[in-house]
């Protein structure tokens, strides 16, 4: 039964860490422009 408590604690800790990483990434602007990269690859970069 004690191993069950340990696994619950570990899963809650892992969930909180993942949530904090998501909040940090959102504040840093990682999810601001989700449409841009697929159009950026179509731009012609050849300026000769």
How would you characterize this protein structure?
The protein has one domain (about 1-40). The chain has helices at about 1-25, 35-40. With about 50 residues, it is mainly alpha-helical. The longest helix has 26 residues, at about 1-25. The model has no long low-confidence stretch (mean pLDDT about 90). The relative contact order is 0.07. The N and C termini lie far apart (about 70 Å). The protein contains two helices and no strands. It is rod-shaped.
Key structural traits:
48 residues; mainly alpha; 2 helices; rod-shaped
Could you give a quick summary of the protein structure above?
With 48 residues, the chain is mainly α.
Number of self-contained structural domains: 1
Number of strands: 0
Rg, Cα atoms, Å: 20 Å
Shape: rod-shaped
Distance from first to last alpha carbon: 71 Å
Biggest sheet descriptor: none
Can you lay out the helices and strands and say which pair or pack?
Layout: H1 2-27, H2 36-40
